[in-house]
Amino acid sequence: MIADFGSLSLWLICLFSLIQFGGIFIFRNMIMEISKASVISCMILSLICFISLSYSHIISDFSIENVYQNSSSLKPLIYKFSGSWGSHEGSMILWILILCLFSFAFWLLEDIPIKAHIISIQGLIIFLFAIYTAIYSSPFHKIIPPPFEGLGLKPVLQDIGLAFHPPALYLGYLGMSIPFSFAVGILLSKQQMDGWQKILHKWVIISWIFLTLGIALGSWWAYRELGWGGYWFWDPVENASLMPWLVATALIHALIAKNYHMSILLAIMAFSLSMIGTFLVRSGILTSVHSFAMDLERGSFILLIIMIITGLGIFSYLFFPPKKQDRKISLYLLLNNILLLVALFTILLGTLYPLLLDLATGEKISVGAPYFNKIMGILNIPFIALAIFAPFFYKFSNKSRILLFVFSALLFILSAIVSGKIIAASSIILALILILSHMAKSSYHNRAMLISHTGFALIVMGIATSSIFGFDREFSMQPSESREFEGEYRLEFRQLKQKIGSNYIANQGVFALWKGNNEIAILTPEFRFYPIEGDTTIEKSIDRHYLLSDYYIAMGEMDKNNYSSVRFYYRPLINLLWIGALIIIIGGSLSLKRLYYR
Amino acid sequence: MQKKHKRLLIILSSLACFAIAIIIILREFERNILFFYSPKEVVELEIQDGKIFRLGGMVKEGSVNYDASNSRLEFIITDFEAELSVLYYGIKPNMFREKQGMVGKGRLAEGIFIADELLTKHDENYMPPEVADKLKKVDYDR
Predict the structure, then answer these.
(1) B100 and B85 in contact (C-beta within 8 Å)?
(2) Which of residues 33-62 of B touch A (CB under 8 A)?
(3) What is the pLDDT of residues A118-127, one digit of tens each?
């Protein structure tokens, strides 16, 4: 019965979003009322839809196929709830909810002449995704007679970071729909509206904050759950989330630079990339940890949706171009954006080229991580340098600016030939200078900027330090054995325990880590077996030393002779990555606050 | 310097920077392209020892041998037309099991594929698309 509510509300969303889109063309004298009615209806309906699905998951209603395939009655409550968006079909319901939420929020909070037009474009976007979900991807299909137990959720997804990574990421991706609709609305309406830039800026920052959070959560999960000590693999799907983030960052800088031509273009690009990201994840074209097992028919429909929406954006920009702006454009912010676009191009090339090659010739290649690491590592240096010097450039004379420019160019060329470690080391030094120089800046400098840049510098330091000074060791050990390594370290396998969780049983190893004569950590990795899913996970144990550096152990399956593979990782200052991400988010929130109160 | 000359200098130096950047990017890109082969292709194309590539296929039933005391995993990858022995040192990946698609990165050494990395998925019914594509070309009994 609940499933029927869900299914019905999904189809009604298709209807109302269509009205939201087309209503203003048909009922030209009632556009405000139509916007209001459709936006509120879609909001309520999408809530009903989402609640129907989550409720069914929480009560373990296996008559619904989606619940059967992704849940079990033994699963902890939090993962029952988060499992409602763990599958492709379920995640589309969350997707639609968030789209309707943003439309509703925009309608509620903003009052501008082109409001109805923006809401209309949102309606088109919602309609396209809703109709796709209703036809190809509904989670409300029933199984008769209902099974007694479900298939469970892949254990590796049963993690708190991963539970909230999709919602955060979707809030980021879909938040970009507002700047997109805004940009298209501005272009098509050809209206001269004052202060639209500030409104656009607000909504971009909101999405950008969520996108940052979503990416950070995903990376944090990967580090803890699958990483083998790694947190970013330049996996095409990870790249698909990073690319809109780069464009959104460029967009923020373009808005700060008051470069409105560029802002509109970037707003259109950001959302287009968000959707291309979706397509890459769901089409089944890619091999990756993230790929949902899917067929190509669905992928084609999503591709169609992307082409329609992106097409609308490009059409608007080409045939209704923004007015010429005659003001000086900040050189350094422009330079920053050029660098961001170069980074975007780099990632785009590495991600799309294999896809296009496969489509064209059937040849299958992949691009190794070192390509991305090296180029991004090199690009990072001018980013930090700009962040350090740009706010001070007004103090430099023309001659010293030219000298600095030439010097930087030489450095840039040089960095292409030196080793990764040197690039990493220089990044650390530059990041430190950035942090110190920001702390010394006077209060008239934008505090939000100082904070966000500091967060960025911390991330760079975390990445560079852990990669230069971190190391891995692998051992085969039995309980009561010890291993010595790196001169002063000793790892002692004290004992093996059995542990029972709500839906798993585990072997837990108790390890003591010694440095010299001091026992510095106790680590308890587990090897878990989930009976319903018939699957295992390797749960790492991490000791956060002084809250910043990690000692980390993963223990594999034990064989008949009681030997386990044990992998030890040392990652100094790795937590700066997550701390840095949080600080960036704080900076963004501060910026949002300033935009609201000015 | 005259304004006209200054502008020319800026444009030329920007173009130079762009050109250098593109060259660096494309060079690194080319260096890091990894090919993907099925066992049959490895045999047909006579892949050299030592060249790093990705190997994909299905893990042959009954071929898995895991020695935890040495962290040594041995198995056979097949595409039902050719087979290749694979050797991997490390913790046996979570999702690794027989009769399932698997992709490994490594190189050949005397007829055995030494894998540095094994690709794991978070969907136990998953068959990596490249593998599925190659297997499609062979008519086999699942």
Answers:
(1) no
(2) 33-36, 54
(3) 999 999 999 9
